[in-house]
């Protein structure tokens, strides 16, 4: 037994060295410089001064191969504290490069630079990067495309062309001002004035027509759209007039291909689709509009468009009849059935790695909430003189202010966080029923949940009817998780697990809680560090809809968090 394991570990080490050498032969190191700076951007007939990277909106697209290393020097030449997050990158043993402010690093103050260094390990597909400070990600985001390792290819026919298609949200104000107003009033922040595709609202908005994003195709060819939802606060439906889409990948994991007329995508998620230009040459609108799962909640009801343009039809006017593009039919804003049916089609292409034996059986309620307000009335503009809040398991997450959790952990600084996040709700109630008003106000805290290295974790994310039911796109940093099941109403631990898909469940980094229902996820805690889990609607994370895991080190250096890089920003 002993001999065998020594042999195995020797063998593993050898394979590791061989693989590592092979990697070195092929892997590239990409250097980038990002300067955060105020930039005038003209949209909807007016100019806003918003923060961008290098003056670009959306920001630069990063293109790498699986196995490559990125070294990105970020300089904050703006007026707000900021940090950047490489959304979906696993950052194995390297939480220092993950980015959420006050969690894995202190933000960069104006004038400060910080260099993010990380290597892509066994991930390929579409991810993205964005600011992880306040509402700065409204304008600070870009695509992060990971091609297969040099010499390997996609598990689907190579498309003729590829395009990032980034959905976003635009305010006729500096988004930081919109956030500030909401922080003062306690009410929900103003909804956006437009949605955008690659930064452009499109033909249905004023003063936008001449800049509408165009996706050129040759008749007959198949293209790949790398759809990213970078919107701050809104799930979106996306369709292309007269063209079907074949979903092949989501959140940088290949899926079993399936055909659809509509994609529903939550903030934080990515979805790759193949589109074949098999229609009469012409111009076809690609459009996105809100999927708003909460009844009675204000949302931006506008529609953004781009144009799929057959090259042979390019010279003809896109507006003059009969060439005016056709609009696709989009689902109604509240079409939860279509959203759920779309989500239900995802299957992972590879199978067999789902953890079957569970060591940590967690149950997290995802709650909005209200705080009864006694201050001046301008600060109590939530429903019936309240302020909005949100929580998981009744803990409204408070981001530290004087240190980051990772830095406090590494330096053994007490008083920054505790590790008593509850594994189950402190109180059981009819989660999706009529929740008594007395239960709507959560406690506050910077509470983490500790996980042993390598433990098998299952979490039931249960949406509740506190204030309203809603689809919350829950994002876990540092991991991909298997989505093994979902359903309506309250999770039933006796009957629901029997229906779990443990064969080929999709793997994601962001999944919506079924509105008025639950979703079950599993992962192996093989990445030590502090990893935030939160709702990717920024309006909700600001109210405290977050928690963090502290995944302990395993045995030996290769299973432990790396030492912090030089020049980590200080708070
Ligand atoms: C929010 O919307 C209200 C009503 O339309 C408007 O009066 C206010 O100026 C807006 N605030 C911001 C910060 O955009
Ligand atoms: C969108 O909302 C605005 C104001 O909330 C309303 O006036 C308008 O009719 C709505 N438009 C559509 C297409 O529903
Ligand atoms: C969706 O909203 C419309 C009003 O905009 C309403 O008539 C319809 O009943 C709603 N559908 C569902 C499924 O709630
Ligand atoms: C506000 O108060 C009214 C009247 O008591 C009640 O009908 C309504 O449900 C309350 N709204 C919230 C969100 O508590
Ligand atoms: C919810 O419960 C409260 C009392 O706890 C009651 O006043 C109210 O009518 C109930 N609402 C519904 C829709 O059942
Ligand atoms: C807040 O006020 C409501 C009545 O408006 C009451 O039902 C509830 O218990 C109060 N919550 C707290 C935490 O005081
Ligand atoms: C949350 O905690 C607060 C404060 O301890 C308590 O008043 C409230 O009833 C709790 N609600 C739930 C849903 O556990
Ligand atoms: Cu949310």
From TrEMBL:
Any one GO MF term held by the record is: hydroquinone:oxygen oxidoreductase activity
Q: Name one GO cellular component term.
A: apoplast
Pfam families cross-referenced by the UniProt entry: Cu-oxidase, Cu-oxidase_2, Cu-oxidase_3
Question: Sorted alphabetically, which PANTHER family does this protein's record hold?
Answer: LACCASE-13, MULTI-COPPER OXIDASE
Q: What protein name does the entry list?
A: Laccase
Q: Which cofactor does it need?
A: Cu cation
User: Any binding details for the cofactor?
Assistant: Binds 4 Cu cations per monomer.
Q: Which InterPro entries match?
A: Cu-oxidase-like_N, Cu-oxidase_2nd, Cu-oxidase_C, Cu-oxidase_fam, Cu_oxidase_CS, Cu_oxidase_Cu_BS, Cupredoxin, CuRO_1_LCC
Chemical reaction(s) catalysed: 4 hydroquinone + O2 = 4 benzosemiquinone + 2 H2O
EC category name: oxidoreductase
PROSITE patterns documented for this protein: MULTICOPPER_OXIDASE1 (PS00079), MULTICOPPER_OXIDASE2 (PS00080)
Give the similarity note.
Belongs to the multicopper oxidase family.
Q: What EC number(s) does the entry state? A: 1.10.3.2
Q: What is the lineage of its organism?
A: Eukaryota, Viridiplantae, Streptophyta, Embryophyta, Tracheophyta
- Listed GO biological process terms: lignin catabolic process
Q: Which residues form the Plastocyanin-like domain?
A: 36-150, 162-312, 420-553
Source species, domain of life: Eukaryota
Principal location class: secreted
What job does the chain carry out?
Lignin degradation and detoxification of lignin-derived products.
Localization, UniProt: Secreted, Extracellular space, Apoplast
Segment forming the signal sequence: 1-27
Keywords from the named record:
Apoplast, Copper, Glycoprotein, Lignin degradation, Metal-binding, Oxidoreductase, Repeat, Secreted, Signal
